[in-house]
Amino acid sequence: MSTLLIIEQVLNGLQFGVMLFLMAAGLTLIFGVMGLINLAHGSLYMIGAFAAAAVAGLTGSFVLALIAAMAAAAVAGVLVEMLIIRRLYATDHLDQVLATFALILIFSEGTRWLFGSFPLFLNIPDYFSGPVTLPGGIQYPLYRLVLICVGLLVAGALGLFITRTRVGIQIRAGKNDREMIAALGVDISKLYTLIFALGAALAGLAGALVGAIQSVQVGMGEPVLILAFVVIVIGGIGSIKGALIGALLVGLTDTLGGIFLPELFKLFMAPSAAQSSGSALASMAIYILMGVVLIWRPTGLFGARI
Amino acid sequence: MIRERHLNALVLLLLFAVPLWAFFNDAPFTITLATRAVIFALAAVGLNIALGLGGLVSFGHAVFFGIGGYSMGILAHHAQTYTPLMEAPFLIEGTKSMPVIWLVAMVTSAFAALLIGLLSLRTAGVYFIMITLAFGQMFYFFSISWAAYGGEDGLSVYVRNGFPGVNTLVPINFFVICFVILCLVVLLNTLIAKSPFGLALSAARQVPQRVQTVGLDPNRLKLVAFVISGVITGLAGALFADLNRFVSPTMFSWQMSGEIMIFIILGGVARLCGPIIGAVTFVMLEHFLGGLSEYWHIYLGVLLLIIVLFARGGLVGLITGREVAHD
């Protein structure tokens, strides 16, 4: 196994991780601040990808496609928040699970009805396609490198937004004591809608960015949703820093596990058996990681102690 | 408004009468549909012991459903290929006998539930939901990559397994077997709820500190409930695999866990027959809306939304007009 391969896999893991972060950031804010389990967050990711594919098909512009993705997801998020989610804040988690599961059904079938069952394709723009040569002679796809940069930039901007701006302070305060912040004159329901729109836009952006690597299809949001839940639970619910570290951990574990576990097993097993049991363990690796973290720290790495 | 006890009796009666009617009017598909509903109801009654009585929102009950399914699949697979399951240290052969399969399904589910429960109960609330989901996903991916038993394609069993003295190939007979099991489990559920254990469990859900003060361990109570719950859902899984004569990783999927939970929320959490009404309604909606339009999931989604928003306490709450506190 060469160093080049390892570095390439680490980069792949980083890229996967930062995309998961875009999903998890919104989820953890909504979860942490409003106490709401939103299973439909994956649908917003899918809406972003479809909006991007549609706009890119019409205009040919990747930048416009990204803007459309964020706008479409944010609009869908705001609509859903104002019509349905708003009524669920005070209810228990079970009602939220059922209601947002119902939303998944509506969004998925609605998208299938609008766009048909066949996957759409979103092309990587010319200026981002092709490989680049990194120091050390590693050939790596430029687009994936761009994804890593975009993800890290968004993470930085979100961190600044939460810690430095007035709205960010209100969001953090709302997480701790919503009556007090409402008494101080902050319009809580407007704040919640804003957080929802922000989370939705990030999910839409992730959908559009990843849509250019994979195909854009109905149901693409659900596997990512589960991973995003894993991320925020590992990181500790409500923590942006936790979401970033959790996302990178999950991304790296998943990518590196698939490569190294079979190799590791080959040291003491027959190659074919090592390959199959290694990849079996690799596909379970992130869930094992999550289990271990929760058993060690029941509220995640950066969660509040109970 | 009718009393909940009367509603429960009515539901069980109807659930039995409809397939009986179908049997005399030669409508085998209706019987299959009813059997499906009964098996889902059984899984949901199982989950409701953890969720309704114990307040444990398990998002991973498909683990036990799948373990039950694979117990059946693996034993029947070895029986139909005439290969032993294990030769050393002692010989274990496959089997086509339902009672043996059920026993294996229940014992393995119990072990899994004990292990998962011990680890998961260290957390609470949302974290509990997520760690059970994580266990579900582990089993799901394990079953996908377990090539010896079909991997992603699953396992087919050509002939339904046998039950001593009953021809299980006749749909109505298999239905009756499942229905009797469901009734027994519902009875067991009432007994548990009224027993000292059930009352202590309820108390542990509501005020764990007080339970601790009187010298009981809330977590141990919850663990026992979780194991009982897993065993029943495992049994339902074995029956479900027998109904389809097929088992695949889908039985382990998080959507499956979600569906079992939805049966309960739809019918009414912590109600004796809530899970049954939920499962029957879901199967019927699936069937009738499916015939209505290609995009029937939209209608299903809208219906579920309406129920969540306007019928707190599920369908049973809507019909009996009384809400049971669930937290």
Automatic annotation (TrEMBL), chain A:
Output the Pfam families linked to this UniProt entry: BPD_transp_2
At the top level, the lineage of the source is Bacteria
**Keyword Transmembrane helix set for record:** yes
Q: Which GO terms describe its cellular component?
A: plasma membrane
Question: What's the protein here called?
Answer: Branched-chain amino acid ABC transporter permease
Tell me the InterPro entries matching this sequence.
ABC_transp_permease, BCAA_transport_permease
Gene Ontology MF term list: transmembrane transporter activity
Q: Which cellular compartments is it found in?
A: Cell membrane
Its main localization is: membrane
Similarity comment text for this entry: Belongs to the binding-protein-dependent transport system permease family. LivHM subfamily.
- Leader peptide range in chain numbering: none
TrEMBL record, chain B:
| Major subcellular site | membrane
Its membrane topology is listed as: Multi-pass membrane protein
List the GO terms this entry assigns under cellular component, sorted alphabetically: plasma membrane
What InterPro entries is this protein classified in? ABC_transp_permease, LivM-like
Q: Name one Pfam family in it.
A: BPD_transp_2
Tell me the compartments it is located in.
Answer: Cell membrane
Transferase as a keyword of this entry, yes or no, is no
Recall the GO molecular function terms of this protein's record. branched-chain amino acid transmembrane transporter activity
This protein's UniProt keywords: Cell membrane, Membrane, Plasmid, Transmembrane, Transmembrane helix
Does the keyword Glycoprotein feature in the UniProt annotation?
A: no
Provide the protein name. Answer: Branched-chain amino acid ABC transporter permease
